[in-house]
Amino acid sequence: MVGKGFKRVTVVVFAFCALFGLLVMEAGANPYAKYAGTTLVVNFPSHPYYEYAIKLLPEFTKETGIKVEVDKIEYMKMRDKQLLEMSKPKGDYDVISYVVMWKTEYVSKGLLTPLAPFFTNPALADPTYDAADLVPAYVQTTGMVGGPKGYLPGPTAALYAIPFGSETSMFAYRKDIFDKHGWKVPQTYDEMLKLCRLVKEKEPEMGGMTMRGEAGHQVQHAWFNHLTPYGGGVFDDHWEPIFHKEPSIKAINAMIEIVKTGPPGITTFAYGAMTDAFLLGKAAMYLDSTALPGLVRNPEKSKVMGKVGYALHPKAVKHSTETGGFGIAIPANSTKKEAAFLLIQWFTSKAQDRKIARLGGMPNRLSTLKDPGMQKEFPEFVAILENLKYANPDWRPLIPEWPEISMQYIGIALHEAITGKKTPEKAMTDVIEPVKKIMERGGYYVWKR
Fold it and tell me: Is the pTM of this model over 0.85?
């Protein structure tokens, strides 16, 4: 939908009027007229949120005259393809979606276009866009690069992406099972882990909690869900490893308990299998991203529709919830940056945020989450707002070296711990030195005093 500050379409070539159904008005009043007939190529992940978003593309083309071709890839394979394309003098992509853990690497290599020049161009920037309405923690984690630690918001940070498919973490549970046994929603980790054991005892065909456990990225994502509530981290403020210390060990021991009492196969679960275990009734609890509710309502995927409640991520030593998911950005080597910005602005507007939410995606805007009508339609929005109070922009280190560290070392060590190949203490201690060598190579200790 064109913003209030924009006048409707003016005179354009009759061919485009027929093709896109644009309204005939005076020429210069249509912000899209200059770009009608442009074709953008976007790289999106195979992910539920983006499946919903893609459904809106015909509407964008009808309204703007800009065509969009989608190259859809499994999200853990996107990084290699994106690095290849964005490193060329001219790549194939005009818009990309990236996982937040890649943002600092992309910016440090000069692969993304800063967005400020577009938001300061009155011919492109919709005055009704209301950037302040975007969930602040999502903007900070997804789009801000160059502040403290290189990836946090601050005086030196700049905006390179807009949240699009961003997420926090939340607790979900089977209301019918909890009601059957008179169980209360857990407020703390001790209560949650006790419920894991009780489910295993009282519901023999069901696991307590589902969890990601596949070696590499997946199991380290699960670890972060527990690490920051236990007060732990990966590095201290001087980039010295702390992932072997007590808070981390407590988080890993919680994961081991979840594996013992959970549905079979957890140690092989990636995101899809982890979610399916809950959707198919094989687990009574879920503690992961806010992508779940839309899947619960999908009768093709879910057997638990109408049986699920949502609540605050339980507290260990503190409340701390995820900031993660996807951002949408413009490669530096795109030759169609202005049209690409118009697509990003349109996709992340208030109107499209609500449409994607109604299709099943989680909102990126506060106005969608806080709207009483939307909350009545989607009661989980109340729980999401509560979880966002504790959203942690430093939930994981978003440094260029993180994919290598997490995939080749920490993600392997965690898998060794939850499968019993090593104790948690030994598994994490064994990777201190290789991780430090990566950090030394990256220059993190050059300024150390």
Answer: yes
